[in-house]
Amino acid sequence: MKKIIHIAFLFCTLTVVCQQEITLEEAIKISQKNSPDYKALLNQNQGSYWRFRNFKAGFLPQLRLDATLPQYLNSVNRLTNDAGQDIFVRSNQSRLEGNLSLNQNIALTGGTISLSSQLERVDVFGDNPTTGFAVIPFSINYRQNSLFYNQFKWDKRIEPLLFEEARRGFIESMEQISLNTARRYFALLKAQVQTRIAKSNLSNQDTLFQISKGRFEMGKIAENDLLQIELSVLNSKNDVTTNEINFKGSSQNLSRYLNLDTENILLEVPKELSIFTVTVEKALEEAKSNRKAVIEFRRKRLQAERDLAEVKGSNRLQMSLNANFGISQQGPIFDNLFQNFNQQQNVSLFLGIPILDWGVSKSRRKLVEANKDLINTNVEQDEQEFEQEIYLHVLNWQNQRNFLETAKKAQEIAVKRYEITKKRLVLGKITITDLNIALQEQDRSILQYLNSLEKFWLDYYTLRRLTLFDFIENKKIEVADIIYD
Predict the structure, then answer these.
(1) Which domains does the chain have, with CATH numbers?
(2) What are the contacts of 230-238 at 24+ separation with CB within 8 A?
(3) Angle at Cα 275 formed by Cα 273 and Cα 281, nearest 5°?
(4) pLDDT digits (tens, 9 = 90+) for 55-82
(5) What confidence tens digit (pLDDT) does each residue in 266-318 have?
């Protein structure tokens, strides 16, 4: 294919110093390490990773120390005595307190169990200074905000899906980077080719103009034909300028995306892929197995069910539980605290029942139910569009190689026809109009071939992104070098 392109360029090359040659495969590898899209993707994926780490850590034992070091109070406070009278008492004291606790969330029940130990010291200042101690060496506490809704259970089901969705999304985005790179690559390649064509055309037109001037002086062609050739030379100069500007912009676009230190890039025409077969059934099977959308559909349904369960669990009857069992002691002498412990235990069950709420509970439940139905409907539509997109793309891909072969053959014919037409013009057998028509058809066929080649490669990388499957290597697409800092 590369040889054909060079023929199509009319054996014309650019004289370039210190150009960096890059193939499409090399450009994609560079962009998947250095492009702005990759850096943003890496930051986004790290956020998903640490969110999942935070979720998993929430179900591990948490050791915590809380302390007041110290608290000093010197003020007049209003108190109610045993007779029910309000009196004012000056308080001049300091308090030192420490609490060490071990907490564990229980996914099965949705509550939290805690094992704690607490020590407190109070120093009273004034005319009769005193010191008091209080200790709770051992205390077990269990608390649960709702007996009818278990937040931990739903988190256990949803958070792993979110993490898997992010992992698959990372791979999809890497394939999207390949697609973005291919677009920029072919934009520069076409600009590079058009610049070469424009310079080649200018050289050929100028040569014909010099020949035509000699033939005009000999009276073999009319002045009108000479002027038309001269006009073609001027138009060719404008084409060279326009294409060089476009070439410069496309070169900057690709080099900045690849984070290269040069804009002087020379691209190679990508080779055609080896022949492989893709069936709709195989593409759908791999897409359903690999794409993040499948996980996303399941996650959205679960989140809708969770929201409904939360409303049902707290809408009509609210119940929460708090239970504590432990031992304690207090006194003025620290050494006597750890003997003859007092028991302390308490159990509290909170109950809340809406008696008259004017339909607030019902409307809240109906709203969540309607939202759940809407989400399920939207997910069903997304699933259909998901399958349809793959189906249509596979059908389109099956015809791309035929389109490419047709464009390739048309290019060969147009190039050959222009060479024959140019020779016939020199012999005086045709007019300059015939030559210009042949030249336009040649230029158009070269560009059409590059457009077909671009679409061929873009469709290939789109197929990879839609299925996350490498049909050439016959394996799933994986990314092994995800970095977590």
Answers:
(1) 2-54+155-299+375-476 (1.20.1600.10), 68-106+111-147+326-352 (no CATH)
(2) 232/205, 232/432, 232/436, 233/202, 233/205, 233/206, 233/209, 236/198, 236/201, 236/202, 236/205, 236/206, 237/202
(3) 115
(4) 999 999 999 999 888 888 888 888 888 8
(5) 888 888 777 788 889 999 999 999 999 999 999 999 999 999 998 888 777 77
